[in-house]
Design goal:
The structure holds two protein chains of two kinds. Chain A is mainly α. Helices cover about 70% and strands about 0% of the residues of chain A. The two termini of chain A are about 35 Å apart. Chain B starts with 14 loop residues before the first strand and ends with a helix. In chain B, helix 14 packs across helix 15 and helix 15 packs parallel to helix 16. Chain B is of the alpha/beta class. Classes of the chains: A mainly alpha, B alpha/beta.
């Protein structure tokens, strides 16, 4: 055997084809099942209601999933590295309250830009603290972010002693209302752009690929020279920032902020990521899958509303869908 | 004697296995396997991975059902429907990966599933006393109330044996019992096996370490490709002969010829010590093209030492220089940058990301090559992977899951990952652990080739023959201390073991 030369003789034809195939399958890796589910769901709703398959309703669904979608991007990163973030709902509320407190005329009145920036910084710091608790204090992510969930919720309440802040400038609320080019609100656009950026990041950036390695085996990644600790801190910080951004989007949609908002959102977010084919043990998942997971939850809620199903039954249905989605995924993997 | 076992069915009350067959789909993993185990005898079952040893033992231990064939045990037909049924019949198995509950006590582990009860509550006093008696029978001085997690692997294995004894096992199947044991612990295990043997117990002993088979076994059964290819009535068969039967061809040369090392010193380690004192004041140097073997018993600090040199664990004092330049060992990344790479001890936990492809595994740690400016393109990964695969002769394609590869091919992927940098110092920790005898030769060739291409190579191995056959010089550690560096000419089994046990 020769270690030196003769290495680069590559057969061009089949390899190029394989590479193209690999690219396509990478984009939809593990998302075929959820995608089929989404298509079937849309098909069923189109047949059973007159209103589902209208441009207006589809745009409504997109509007409704913006908050969930933005948070789910951050959660995808965290789950990819084998972590979990239970604090996103609370961080959303804290960021929204910080923005309201800094920007609103009844409080600090420093203007919207200052409010938004402060909110994002605070949210990022929350995430960073969670990350440090995991990497330095060696707390399990579940515990670290459970603690942050409580702390952030408490802080959100402390800012105004539990009361809400109402009324923001028109330009701010119109970010989620005015549909540019007839279909795209700024907030929906923001979600789409973020999804594309993070999809490219995860698929084509060395750092993004490193996250998959960390989730697959943190020790292998570390021994391969990947800075596991600092990337972990970054991932939690980014998840925090995105949760904060979701809080700002929610404020624009509601024209108000309240410390109780985002309660239970962490579970919806985790559900969307998992329905999208990510593995809670890390190393498997994609933004494409998460997008499908988010849409499945959004379409399901929307469709059940159109069908006049009570919100209580909706909860039952969504629970069943989560179990079904993950179960079929597990069966499929075992069959392979 | 060499009578066909099927004709001697009534001659004793041991185990007769005759004509066992097992297929999974179109793959026949066991074909017409027949052998016997007499009372009070140790039969070694040898063969490469996939030869059918585990299938046979799983059938005997009740966890797999055969497609055809029959077993007679203690004069009666025996076809256990489950491991529990096998245990009831007096057949136990000690798995390679111990099946203990780490957070329960020793006694609880021994009696799990059948805890002695009194008045609806667990009778702890009786349980501890009985467990204690069994441990004493094995010559083990461990409190029955101690948590299993706090015991060394060897002691945990003893707990499993004690458990089998309380189940009144008459036949024990050992699957690679010494894989994680040092030589003293192995000696203790052998002593116990001999004692139990004298009491009339029978053993089926599966191992890859052929030297110890000669020591403990009475007879040897060799398997290949699901068939029994040889039965030896004595255990002191030449190792070479057994290996040839295992791999089905003659093994002319296990170790490749070594090339002459160069004169330039590439790796200098000076007075290196670890914070946990797992090794202290170790100093050595390795030249270009030289292979330094590191030998020692389990727990001597070999793995800890090489991990520290590769930046994986912190050091408390000392220095490492590569090609004359001091290396700040702040982490694996710094070591890799300085040209020191490590093929770690535990392939599955530290070497490969099992749910990724070969290509992705090769790209990890090479993003500086594969992804200039940080952009990773599948085509570049593919090309990089194909180069690595071609260079080491890995049997696989870049987009194939690495979990589908054999151990030997996975190990080649890990080596290929680093080879293109190229590194200056290549450290391999237990490079052939869990790899088939036939595939080991290929790994040895690769290691010799690394040295020939001018790298300084460090090889850690528990397999003494491997260290001796591969190394220009052998450094011997014992209890964290460097006991000496032997030249190839003076390094013998005896010389190394003398230092290692000092």
């Amino acid at each position: 055997m020769a270690l030196s030369n003769g290495a680069s003789e590559l057969k061009a034809g089949p390899n190029a084809q394989a590479a193209a195939g690999a690219k396509l399958s990478a984009l939809f890796a593990g998302t075929m099942g959820p995608l089929i589910g989404l298509v079937l769901l849309c098909l069923a709703l189109s047949l059973t209601t007159d209103t589902f398959l209208t441009v207006r309703n589809i745009l409504n669904v997109l509007d409704q999933v913006t908050v969930l979608g933005i948070m789910a991007i951050g959660m995808t990163l965290v789950i990819l590295i084998g972590g979990i973030d239970l604090s996103v709902g609370s961080v959303l509320a804290l960021a929204a309250m910080v923005m309201g407190f800094v920007a609103h005329p009844d409080h600090l009145n420093l203007g919207m830009p200052a409010g938004i920036v402060t909110a994002l910084v605070v949210a990022g710091l929350c995430g960073l603290v969670s990350g440090l608790l995991v990497t330095v204090t060696k707390l399990p992510p579940f515990i670290a972010t459970l603690a942050m969930m409580s702390v952030a919720r408490g802080l959100a309440n402390m800012i105004t002693d539990g009361s809400q802040i109402i009324g923001f400038p028109d330009w701010f609320t119109s970010l989620s209302i005015i549909r540019h080019f007839g279909f795209l609100s700024v907030t929906v656009g923001l979600m789409i752009v973020l999804a594309i950026i993070f999809a490219i990041f995860l698929n084509y950036r060395a750092t993004g690929r490193s996250l998959y390695a960390i989730g697959g085996s943190a020790e292998v990644a570390r021994l391969s020279g990947i800075p596991v600790k600092s990337l972990t801190n970054w991932v939690y910080a980014i998840c925090g920032v995105l949760a904060g951004l979701a809080g700002i989007v929610l404020a624009a949609r509601l024209d108000s902020v309240q410390p109780s908002s985002g309660f239970g959102y962490e579970l919806d977010t985790i559900a969307a990521v998992v329905i999208g084919g990510a593995s809670l043990s890390g190393g498997v998942g994609s933004i494409g899958g998460t997008a499908i997971g988010v849409l499945i939850i959004g379409v399901l809620r929307n469709g059940l509303n159109l069908l006049g199903v009570s919100p209580f039954i909706q909860q039952v249905v969504i629970g069943v869908v989560i179990a079904l989605a993950v179960a079929t995924d597990t069966w499929r993997r075992r069959a392979q | 004697m060499s009578l066909d076992p099927s004709h001697t069915q009534t001659s004793h009350l041991g185990l007769f296995v005759s004509g066992l067959c097992k297929s999974y789909g179109p793959v026949q993993v066991l074909a017409d396997a027949s052998f016997e185990v007499r009372p009070g005898e140790v039969v070694a079952l040898l063969g490469e991975n996939g030869a059918g040893k585990s299938t046979v033992s799983n059938i005997i231990a009740g966890s797999t059902k055969p497609d055809a064939g029959s077993i007679t045990w203690r004069g009666k037909p025996y076809s256990p429907a489950s491991p529990a049924a096998a245990i009831d019949a007096g057949v136990g198995m000690i798995h390679q990966e111990l099946k203990l509950l780490p957070d329960l006590s020793v006694a609880e582990n021994v009696y799990v599933g059948r805890l002695p009860m009194r008045g609806g509550r667990i009778d702890r006093a009786a349980m501890n006393a009985r467990a204690s008696a069994q441990l004493k029978r094995l010559g083990l001085d461990v409190s029955p109330e101690r948590k299993v997690r706090t015991l060394r692997i060897a002691a945990q294995q003893q707990v499993e044996i004690a458990k089998a004894l309380t189940l009144n096992a008459e036949l024990l199947i050992f699957d690679e019992p010494t894989a994680a044991l040092g030589s003293e612990e192995t000696e203790l295990l052998f002593k116990q096996i001999r004692k139990l043997k004298a009491e009339g117990m029978s053993f089926i002993y599966i191992s890859h370490r052929l030297d110890e088979v000669a020591e403990i076994a009475d007879r040897v059964v060799v398997m290949r490709d699901g068939r029994i290819v040889a039965r030896h009535e004595r255990a002191d068969v030449p190792v070479r002969a057994i290996v040839e039967q295992m791999v089905g061809r003659s093994v002319e040369r296990m170790f490749p010829p070594l090339s002459e090392p160069g004169s330039e010193t590439l790796l200098e380690v000076e007075n290196l010590s670890s914070p946990e004192r797992s090794f202290q004041n170790v100093s050595f140097s390795v030249r270009t093209g030289e292979i330094l073997g590191i030998a020692g018993l389990i727990g001597a600090g070999r793995t800890e030492l090489v991990r520290a040199i590769a930046g994986a664990d912190p050091i408390s004092s000392g220095s490492v220089r590569v090609a004359g330049k001091p290396v700040h060992l702040t982490g694996p990344a710094a070591a890799i940058k300085a040209g020191v790479v490590l093929v770690p001890e535990d392939r599955k936990a530290q070497g490969v990301v099992l749910d990724q492809t070969i290509g992705e595994n090769l790209a990890i740690g090479n993003f500086d090559h594969v992804a200039p400016n940080g952009w990773v393109f599948p085509k570049a990964v593919q090309k990089f992977a194909e180069a690595g695969i071609g260079r080491l002769g890995v049997k696989g394609r870049p987009n194939q899951a690495i979990s589908k590869l054999s151990g030997g091919n996975q190990q080649k992927v890990i080596i290929a990952k680093w080879i293109s940098r190229p590194p200056k110092v290549f450290i391999l920790d237990e490079p052939t652990r869990g790899i088939d005898v036939g595939a080991r030769a290929a790994i040895y060739d690769v290691i010799a080739e690394l040295a020939r291409s001018g790298m300084a190579v460090v090889v850690v191995s528990s397999d003494l023959e491997e260290v001796l056959g591969l190394s220009h010089r052998v450094l011997v550690l014992s209890r964290g201390r460097q006991r000496g560096i032997l030249d190839r000419s003076e390094a013998s089994n005896v010389a190394v073991m003398e230092l290692a046990t000092s």
